[in-house]
Write a structure and sequence with these properties.
With about 180 residues, the protein is α/β, with parallel strands linked by helices. The protein has four helices and eight strands; from the N terminus they run E-H-E-H-H-E-E-H-E-E-E-E. The N and C termini lie far apart (about 75 Å). The model has no long low-confidence stretch (mean pLDDT about 80).
């Protein structure tokens, strides 16, 4: 058996030749700290902390929209939700307590409204979602979380260049009610 730690070519060749390996109880601690600025791992770079501090207060409206992805639907592929063995459903998931407060029933048509637009969908009540959040569908023609966002300055993530599609302050109401 061969003992291996580190990553140089000779040690990897020895590992391959041995056919198996035992990791020594002697661990080479500290090597990662030597490779990092100031010997510290930065999990939250200042640019991300600044962005977090500038995040608008989602309590400005009734709910916060989170973009929902579906197992059987990729982005706008089969955008009408059909053509699959089990059609993708364009439902928005919300907590039953929020639905009661907003006078929305399970399966009822609803409108999710942001400062940038709205989407029309159907309410699906589920107590596994956090109260105050509504999981909006993504990638359908008429029910798409992208309808709630904008490409305008302040609506686009400066780091990635992508429009914000989750964490948006929204109001949710039964369809037909203004």
């Amino acid at each position: 058996m061969g003992a291996v730690f580190g990553s140089d070519a000779a040690r990897w060749a020895a590992l391959r030749a041995a056919g198996n390996a035992v990791v020594s109880p002697e661990r080479p601690y500290g090597w990662v700290h030597d490779a990092l600025p100031d010997g510290r791992l930065r999990l939250a770079p200042s640019v991300l902390l600044e962005q977090l501090a500038a995040t608008p207060d989602p309590k400005a409206r009734d709910m916060v929209s989170i973009s929902r992805r579906l197992l059987r639907k990729t982005n706008s592929t089969l955008a009408d939700g059909h053509g699959l063995r089990a059609p993708a459903l364009r439902e928005a998931i919300m907590h039953p307590d929020d639905a009661r407060r907003l006078r929305i029933d399970d399966g009822q048509p609803i409108v999710v409204v942001s400062d940038n637009g709205e989407l029309h969908t159907t309410a699906r009540l589920d107590d596994r979602i956090r109260p105050g959040a509504v999981a909006t569908p993504h990638g359908f023609v008429d029910a798409n979380a992208a309808n709630l966002t904008s490409g305008a300055p302040g609506h686009v993530d400066e780091i990635t260049g992508m429009p914000y599609t989750t964490g948006l302050a929204v109001d949710v109401r039964p369809a037909g009610r203004t």
